[in-house]
Amino acid sequence: GSWWGMWLPVGVRERVTAVHGGSALPERLRLYDDWADRYEQDVAALEYRAPHLAAASLTFAFPAPPAEARLLDVACGTGLVARELHRRGFRCLHGVDGSAGMLERARSTGLYRQLWRCVLGREPLSAPAEHYDAVTVVGALGEGQVPSAAVPELLRVTKPGGFLCLTTRSNRSNLRYKAELDAALEKLERQGAWQKVLAQEVERWERATSKEESTQGTSYISGVVYIYQKCPIPLLEEG
């Protein structure tokens, strides 16, 4: 009975640790398939606030009436982000995920107009260039998940002037990835590909699954929400 264990129902910690572990991609996708049925109750136990925080931030930044906007929810999982966006007036939602099990759950919500399977980082998005008014990647930018090298592919399918909402965690085991991601985001900004609208640090992102991971003196880990706006006039690539 470790000190953080009392916060989490049995099995939650194991399932979370497994998907964030170092397993190869096919195995990790299988873990997500198996997790789909229990995913929402598990993240509720974790007090996982990213879908709410991301949707609120995007809505705040978004100038246009959201009902008309075409939005791509990348790594959509069971549809938690779609639910939050739908509550805020977004109606034209498309989703992609690497896990067939997760997509099945997302489909059952009825919130998406289109859903398809795509393992980002391994394959491009099967969407035309400059197609979406907004793109979200909530919770999947992390060690062993969507690589930071996939960010330009997110930009490709975003309209000039469109918005991208990205989140990542600041817990210890994700720090190397976060540094890599931040470098990739900053490089794209220097190249004039997009402008940063918001970077919001959030202390209580979700419950920690171990003491090593937790933010100093709490039983939570921290995270960050980024909002970027794609530049209307793409500058020429460097090099």
Descriptive overview:
The structure is a single chain. By secondary structure, the protein is an alpha/beta fold. It contains eight helices and seven strands, in the order H-H-H-H-E-H-E-H-E-E-H-E-H-E-E. The chain has a single domain (12-230), classed as Vaccinia Virus protein VP39 (Rossmann fold), CATH 3.40.50. Helix content is 33%, strand content 24%. It has a seven-stranded mixed β-sheet, with helices on both faces. Helix 4 (50-61) crosses helix 5. The chain is globular, with a radius of gyration of 17 Å. The model has no long low-confidence stretch (mean pLDDT 89).
Summarize the structure.
The protein is an alpha/beta fold and 239 residues long. The chain has a single domain, classed as Vaccinia Virus protein VP39 (Rossmann fold, 3-Layer(aba) Sandwich).
Features:
7 strands, 239 residues, seven-stranded mixed sheet, alpha/beta, SAM-dependent_MTases_sf, MET27 protein, globular, Rossmann fold
Run of helices and strands: HHHHEHEHEEHEHEE
Please give the radius of gyration in angstroms: 17 Å
Q: What is the number of independent domains? A: 1
Q: What ranges have pLDDT less than 50 throughout 5 or more consecutive residues?
A: none
What is the CATH homology-level superfamily? Vaccinia Virus protein VP39
Share of helix, binned: 25-40%
| Oligomeric state | single chain
| Class derived from helix and strand content | alpha/beta
Q: Cα distance, first to last residue?
A: 55 Å
